[in-house]
């Protein structure tokens, strides 16, 4: 088992550079270092220190100035709007404190030359343009001025084309409203994020899904967050998770699947379908069968899910092949008493968090975390799957199933590990699970999915 511990009062070693999902089939993203950053014994580095939020300067708007509204994450005023002002041509930027009345631009000198308009879209450079009336029209009426017209009169020369005056302070589109979070920002500096783009196909997955509650006598929390690469390009997330109890109630069954990025239009269908069918097949097993022959039980679950996927694809998606539905998967069967078992195909991860110590259930070879060597569906999945027993639970232990996007961040960043260990130190509801995945880390662009099972027994009431 690989073990790595969170250090108290220390920050992370420098993070690796930017990386995104690779376009080649069988690869999800960038490589992960062979050793964990803290193994080198280095001290704190500025790249892992949470990045402070920059505050915009504010000031009163000038008459004719164009203002840009922005929301800043001020801890005291998380929803306060600040205006960043840019003075329009022909105006002056005011200074000092806000005055009670409106602020107007200084009038030009009588012998000052008329400004010549510059060429632009729909506005060729022509004769000088008359000054725009600085006084607002009564009752919100629209005013216009033309060459030869008296300022403020609304009159215009015969045969001239009216030009309507624009608002004196029109804010640009503001960033979307969001909720405050304590999630860290790892990597310095982090660029500002563009506005997210939604995926338009009707087969797209939600950009955010979260759950939290009792499943049997265990608390289970789960969340899946679309990766930044998908939000930037307007493509669908490709992670999926599912959970259930066995038919006799003796097993908790959970699965995480991650569609291959090389199948951007269809892999999410395979991930969703396989996660559901793995739990459906696992629900027919019993704790007694698992204790007797765990590998046979897990192999049967994988085989039943793949066979059902093939039948459903042939019936409902005849134009697709198994490769179009390719995904990786992790599956766990947890009995009410006794050790559980896990199986995986591909690069999804199963981890245990005991106190502040992280353990990997499946041995890592030190190579790229997200280099996919096997996928589902497969005609004989038992032959390509890995199997591992789970250690006996202790109070407060957490079992974690994760897609490679989250696992790569946990393996590669002490700051992310520390954040997740603190957030998951006690059972989380759906909102808290979603918030736990809201950290920003340089180079982290893939979907993040986690299913967390707390061993501490909880009962309603």
UniProtKB/TrEMBL annotation:
InterPro entries: PPM-type-like_dom_sf, PPM-type_phosphatase-like_dom
Comp. bias intervals (Basic and acidic residues): 74-83
A Pfam cross-reference name: PP2C_2
Domain of life: Bacteria
Composition skew (Basic residues), residue ranges: 1-11
Region described as Disordered: 1-204
PPM-type phosphatase domain location: 227-437
Annotated Low complexity bias: 99-119, 148-172
Name the UniProt record assigns to this protein: Protein phosphatase 2C domain-containing protein
Organism the protein comes from: Streptomyces actuosus
